[in-house]
Amino acid sequence: GENVEQHPSTLSVQEGDSAVIKCTYSDSASNYFPWYKQELGKRPQLIIDIRSNVGEKKDQRIAVTLNKTAKHFSLHITETQPEDSAVYFCAASDDTGNQFYFGTGTSLTVIP
Amino acid sequence: GAVVSQHPSRVICKSGTSVKIECRSLDFQATTMFWYRQFPKQSLMLMATSNEGSKATYEQGVEKDKFLINHASLTLSTLTVTSAHPEDSSFYICSANPPGRANTEAFFGQGTRLTVV
């Protein structure tokens, strides 16, 4: 089955700096890669996603890059703000169904 | 987007009792729902795949007699934690996708914080 690894597990940045979270996956059949933000005690919320036919996608301060050959994808948050503090999860899935394989999560703290 | 509702959001129960958690798809029919368990500051751990009209598929290491899953209708799956113990305390969350939308974002319930005392 698919194995998704995520690094780092914790990340602290100064407000205004950039944050980068990286994930790798093992199954070349995976072709959909969403990123979720989860605040304490709440449900994960989709913040951005990318499909395998695209190498990069950007939405305001958030961007995701995908390297299919190397099987890794990254989340980039620029101009970080305190409200960006949360746990971020990457995930991978394929066309066979709805099952997602989640990374281990990154606890991001943005220091004012 | 699709809406998945989970109830209750918080529950405290005594050790040895059973607790039922409901997961409903409000505006679509879900033949498959997923149940996850999450420890503080850790990732979502898939417990089982709930299949409407058939038995759930449990992940390795998850006790099916401990975590009973029933998916009796196309809009409702329930997870019952039987004979709960303090180590069962955790955040439980379900997800589902509208039919025909495989390989799109997962829609999560609000989650249930279970505390066993």
Structure description:
The complex is a heterodimer of chains A (112) and B (117). Chain A is mainly beta and 112 residues long. Chain A has no helices and 11 strands. Helix content of chain A is 0%, strand content 54%. In chain A, strands 2, 4, 5, 9, 10 and 11 form a 6-stranded mixed sheet that branches. In chain A, strands 1-3-8-7-6 form a 5-stranded antiparallel sheet, with no helix packed on it. Chain B is mostly beta strands and 117 residues long. Chain B contains no helices and 11 strands. In chain B, strands 2, 4, 5, 6, 9, 10 and 11 form a 7-stranded mixed sheet that branches. In chain B, strand 4 (32-38) and strand 5 form a beta hairpin. The radius of gyration of chain B is 13 Å and the shape is globular. The N and C termini of chain B lie far apart (37 Å). The model of chain B has no long low-confidence stretch (mean pLDDT 91). At the A-B interface, strand 9 of A face strand 5 and strand 9 of B.
Order of helices and strands of chain B: EEEEEEEEEEE
Shape type of chain B? globular
Runs of chain A with pLDDT <50, length 5+? none
How large is the share of residues in beta strands of chain B?
Answer: over 45%
Assembly type of the chains comes to heterodimer
Question: H/E element string of chain A?
Answer: EEEEEEEEEEE
